[in-house]
Amino acid sequence: xxxxxxxxxxxxxxxxxxxxxxxxxxxxxxxxxxxxxxxxxxxxxxxxxxxxxxxxxxxxxxxxxxxxx
Length: 69
Fold this sequence. Notes:
By secondary structure, the chain is of the alpha+beta class. It has two helices and three strands, in the order E-H-E-E-H. A three-stranded antiparallel β-sheet has the order 1-3-2, with helices on one face. The radius of gyration is 11 Å and the shape is globular.
């Protein structure tokens, strides 16, 4: 798969990758995405690679309704 598109999300604190995976599995289980291998705790954002622009819109709409915990 080629993940040509991306979305940068505001997320702070530790365990960003785990928290995103849990959120995506709960709210968007059919979503295909690629995460970075690691993210520093100090960063306030995370970039997620996606297959299509429609996935980006779905993430942003779902995130507006149900933010990360």
